[in-house]
Design goal:
The chain is an alpha/beta fold and about 230 residues long. Helices cover about 35% and strands about 25% of the residues. It has seven helices and ten strands. The strands form two sheets. The protein has a six-stranded mixed β-sheet, with helices on both faces. Helix 3 packs across helix 4, helix 3 packs parallel to helix 5 and helix 5 packs parallel to helix 6. The chain is globular and about 45 Å long. The structure holds adenosine-5'-triphosphate and magnesium ion. Adenosine-5'-triphosphate binds next to strand 2 and helix 1.
Length: about 230
């Protein structure tokens, strides 16, 4: 489903963020990407979203070279990929319901779709009881779950989560990881970038380890090695 083929990314002038990286990810896999700060995790996710271009190599999503997609067709690619970041990116002046609905409004969904889909997704992330709350009235874990709901509402084939637990305490970390596992069980491919050792070691899922832009390990049921 996702294929990185000999990807090298050099930022100007000389920073080699990724160095000849190759791997495949199948549909419905749950894969963690780990490695020290600066190892290239975020760059890798940005290349899949076509937010950055590779210096060499190709990235395929369902056999389509994502860097050959015409700019006007990129929204179609990004609609198949839900992205979640550490800093939530919620709209402070909108309620939980409105934050999730807004994603649908932007892509031109009807009011009917919005009133049908938003409650469903809030149910999945366990926020059915807080649709009218504003982000500042939520805990960190709840905010991250709104961010996950925003990613889920487009019914993506893949969820990319870039250090989604970075600002959370252990209780909320577990809550967010369990939610990602549940989403994966529902059939969505999950790509999780994190340097959290406990998460990686408790997951028992595939782990790709980067060091200075190179894949140094790619293991089923991998462990954190730093
Ligand atoms: N836009 C950019 N311009 C120049 N260099 C960049 C840019 N983005 C990232 N880099 C560099 O590329 C390397 C990889 O960065 P990246 O953000 O992918 O690392 P990371 O593994 O996500 O790190 P972290 O765990 O701190 O988030 C680093 O050396 C970083 O300084
Ligand atoms: Mg990063």
């Amino acid at each position: 489903m996702i294929k990185f083929q000999n990807i090298t990314k050099i930022y100007n002038p000389t920073t080699v963020a990724l160095d000849n990286v190759s791997f495949n990810i199948e549909k419905k896999e749950f894969v963690s990407i780990t490695g020290r700060s600066g190892a290239g995790k975020t760059t890798l996710l940005k290349l899949l979203l076509a937010e950055e271009k590779p210096t060499r190599g190709r990235v395929f999503f369902d056999d389509q070279d994502v860097h050959k997609i015409e700019p006007e067709k990129l929204p179609q690619l990004r609609r198949r990929i839900g992205a979640i970041f550490q800093d939530y990116k919620l709209l402070p002046s909108k309620t939980v319901f409105e934050n999730v609905a807004y994603v649908l409004e932007v892509i031109g969904a009807s009011d009917l779709e919005i009133s049908r889909d938003v409650p469903q997704v809030l149910e999945i992330v366990g926020l059915s009881d807080k649709p009218e709350n504003f982000p500042q009235e939520l805990s960190g874990g709840e905010r991250q779950r709104v961010a996950i709901a925003r990613a889920l509402i487009i019914r993506p084939n893949v969820i990319l989560a870039d250090e989604p637990t970075g600002n959370l305490d252990p209780y909320h970390i577990r809550e967010v990881i369990n939610l990602l596992l549940k989403i994966n069980e529902m059939g969505t491919t999950v790509l999780l970038a994190t340097h959290n050792k406990e998460i990686i070691n408790n997951l028992g899922k595939r782990v790709i380890t980067l060091e200075k832009g190179r894949v140094i390990k790619d293991e089923e049921k991998g462990r954190f090695i730093f």
